[in-house]
Design goal:
The chain has 516 residues and is mainly alpha-helical. Helices cover 49% and strands 8% of the residues.
């Protein structure tokens, strides 16, 4: 520690903050006890878990460097062969003989710092064709293992995959799924998780894995599907809808950004950060080097971002100049958000299964109404009863027990039935869709009683609905009910009761569609 303070002071570091920090470390002690043993003091000092130690270790190591060599990596003209993040260190070069030389230098530097090299945790990788025979790398006279995968600063790298960042997808998709399963495992004790609580848990415990290495590993291939599947499964379980539910409403109704595009936005934010760095900073040099490679038509990080932008539902065509200034990158981030929301709204508007969501207007500020593609909708948080909320959500997602949806798909014993033949199981006179089941069918006494009681209560709670009921079609009136915050709780209960009544009777299957 004394050597560290001397090095910092020699480089001009001083003042009250420096003296306070040095005083704290001079008096720092760790009290350790095991089971019933007596406590004892440990004055280890550096790298014992406090938040300042990694930075201090970096400062201490800054006085050391690797020898220059034509084989070393250069980033926009700057030779870079050694990266450090506290005790996580990486050496890289384009020639194996130089790598052995770096290992020897690293060993001597560590001895001078009195730092121990953990040989079992050390390894080396070869990117590209393997030489024959495979050379042996040694540190302190001991062989270092050749590895196919390695992790540095939280990012996995592979030397055997077409995408060198492939392990990040498989490993972190697995961690995210485990976190999601843990969240839902408490339902038998707590009941159905409220949507706002579930989304908070998703952001805290699942999203953090799904976005891991998003600013490094750009999604230009199918590997991101592993992450998308975890996100879709989580939202479906949270909302209580099945695997056949549409994907777009998962995001338009919760406000969650699809993970592919969230990762792209995070990568663009990394670009924005890099544009603001001084030219002599290594990250900025790496960024400019990537720009150079892109201009030469070679694969690189910034070219992958350009490919991802060009692969959006509405392609965004970019050039190197679009990434060189902070304001331009901000415009790209806003454009990605606009394109994603526009595509989600298009999917809603074009799907016959989302008729209840067509033409929906919400508050956009200053007492104005307008379309809002993604937002956590009021019915997900205002309806406290989980069974009622799930019933309403399934109705909106067209993921319910009515024949319009149930008979859409073939089964082992029945063929798919055309829409105009999916008749109401009670009246056999009209297609059994949402407006007919909730407001139109008169053939069942229980349904009529439920409807009459419901209409009396909602008209009393929201007088404007009485006029809308008289003037609007059944489908339009359902949209009005869904938009009314005054009656949404009662509407959810009504939907739950009606769907329960329909489940009491099997769906009507016309002759000729059952397999015998």
């Amino acid at each position: 520690m004394d050597q560290l303070w001397n090095d910092m002071y020699a480089r001009g570091v001083g003042g009250d903050w420096f003296d306070t920090l040095r005083s704290i470390y001079a008096r720092m002690e760790y009290v350790t006890a095991n089971a019933g043993d007596d406590r004892f003091h440990s004055g280890v000092g550096l790298l014992t878990g406090d938040s300042l130690s990694p930075g201090l270790y970096n400062i201490r190591s800054a006085r050391y460097s690797m020898p220059s060599s034509p084989a070393n990596v250069r980033l926009h003209g700057l030779e870079v062969s050694w990266l450090r993040l506290a005790d996580d260190e990486l050496n890289g070069t384009t020639a194996f003989a130089e790598l052995q030389r770096q290992a020897d230098t690293f060993e001597s530097n560590s001895d001078e710092q009195r730092a121990h090299i953990n040989i079992p945790k050390s390894h080396f990788m070869i990117h590209g064709p393997l030489p024959s025979p495979i050379p042996s790398l040694r540190v302190a006279g001991q062989p270092i293992a050749l590895s196919k995968e390695s992790k540095f600063a939280g990012v996995w790298i592979s030397s055997v995959s077409a995408n060198i960042f492939e392990p990040n997808y498989s490993i972190y998709a697995g961690k995210a799924r485990n976190a999601a399963n843990t969240i839902f495992s408490v339902r038998h004790r707590t009941g159905q998780i409220p949507v706002d609580v579930g989304i908070n848990l998703y952001n805290a415990r699942v999203d953090c894995y799904l976005i891991r290495a998003a600013d490094i590993a750009i999604d230009v291939d199918g590997l991101v599907h592993m992450l998308e599947e975890v996100q879709r499964d989580f939202l479906r379980r949270l909302l209580g809808v099945g695997s056949r539910s549409l994907l777009a409403p998962l995001f338009t109704e919760t406000g969650v950004m699809p993970i592919r595009y969230r990762r792209l936005i995070l990568a663009l934010k990394r670009v924005r950060y890099l544009t603001k760095l001084d030219f002599d900073r290594i990250p900025h040099r790496a960024f400019r080097d990537s720009i150079d490679l892109w201009q030469e038509g070679k694969p690189c990080w910034i070219a992958d971002i350009a490919i991802a932008l060009n692969s959006l539902p509405t392609p965004i065509i970019t050039s190197p100049a679009d990434f060189m200034h902070e304001r331009n990158v901000d415009d790209l981030i806003q454009e990605v958000t606009r394109v994603v929301d526009q595509d989600l709204q298009r999917q809603i508007d074009e799907s016959p299964k989302c008729r209840l969501l067509w033409g929906r207007l919400e508050s956009v500020g200053d007492r104005k109404l307008g379309p809002v593609a993604r937002r956590r909708r009021h019915y997900l948080t205002m309806v406290a009863n989980a069974d009622h909320r799930i019933a309403l959500t399934r109705l909106i997602f067209s993921n319910h027990c009515l024949s319009i949806e149930l008979l859409r798909y073939p089964t082992r014993y029945r063929a798919a039935i055309p829409r105009d033949m999916r008749l109401c199981r009670f009246c056999l006179a009209s297609v059994e869709d949402e407006p007919h089941a909730l407001l139109g069918c008169e053939a069942d006494l229980t349904l009529r009683d439920l409807r009459d009681a419901f209409l009396r209560e909602v008209f009393a709670a929201d007088s404007s609905l009485r006029t809308k009921y008289a003037l609007e079609s059944d489908l339009e009136f359902l949209r009005s009910l869904l938009a009314s915050r005054k009656t949404i709780v009662r509407f959810a209960k009504f939907v739950h009761d009606v769907l329960h009544r329909f489940r009491c009777l099997p769906a009507f299957v016309p002759n000729g569609f059952n397999f015998h």
